[in-house]
Design goal:
41% strand; 9 helices; alpha+beta; 10 strands; six-stranded mixed beta barrel; single chain
Length: 203
């Protein structure tokens, strides 16, 4: 339950021939039985602070996902607050925070790489403020996760190295694992495929 609520969602809608993530999110939210739907953008980068660096799994999420009761039930706040109120706020995993000596209120540099048309690799540095230190309850995740605002992620993450989708939740992901997927079937804009959490995490 902890991993499904925090990491996988109950279903994910991936665009294969569409860019209308907002339309897909709104259509999912309007579907019967759906308790929440949010756009997420994922990429990788390097977090740098106090002379130390650590690889980061960047998750650009909407504030509503962080505030959702099913997320709050499993995302422990170690310090600060679990909130993304300003564009360059960030939440970092507890293990990453320890390695980088980060606490709520600190600043970190997030380095991402994009590829130019000529093939050159161009770094981009985004300066983030640590709004909170959080724990998913698994050290592997706490060592990697860095949450930031989804709309900021859309601006600063390299498009060619970013995975974007709509995460969807329904009422009972274990009693009815396919409920979220089935509830949005035929309701999303053309160009989306939807997978239930058991398919996403089959391995």
């Amino acid at each position: 339950a902890r991993y499904v609520e925090l990491g996988t969602y109950h279903a994910q809608a991936f665009p294969y021939a569409s860019t209308d993530l907002v339309g897909a999110r709104d259509a999912a939210r309007a579907s019967p039985g759906i308790t929440g739907a949010w756009i997420e953008r994922q990429s990788v980068g390097v977090a740098f602070a106090h002379g130390a660096r650590e690889g980061a799994m960047i998750r650009g999420v909407e504030p509503g996902f962080i505030a959702d009761p099913s997320t709050q039930a499993y995302l422990q706040v170690v310090s600060g607050a679990a909130a993304l109120e300003k564009p360059y706020d960030a939440l970092v995993g507890a293990a990453m925070a320890r390695k980088l000596s980060l606490e709520a209120g600190d600043t970190l540099n997030l380095i991402t790489i994009r590829r130019a048309q000529n093939g050159a690799m161009i770094p981009r540095v985004s300066i983030l403020t640590v709004r909170g230190v959080v724990s998913a309850g698994y050290r592997d995740l706490d060592a990697q996760w860095l949450f930031m605002a989804q709309d900021t992620a859309a601006r600063v993450l390299p498009p060619d190295n970013t995975r974007s989708f709509v995460g969807i939740k329904a009422a009972d992901p274990f009693g009815a694992p396919a409920a979220a997927r089935d509830a949005v079937a035929g309701r999303l804009p053309p160009g989306f495929s939807v997978y239930q959490w058991k398919d996403i995490q089959r391995n």
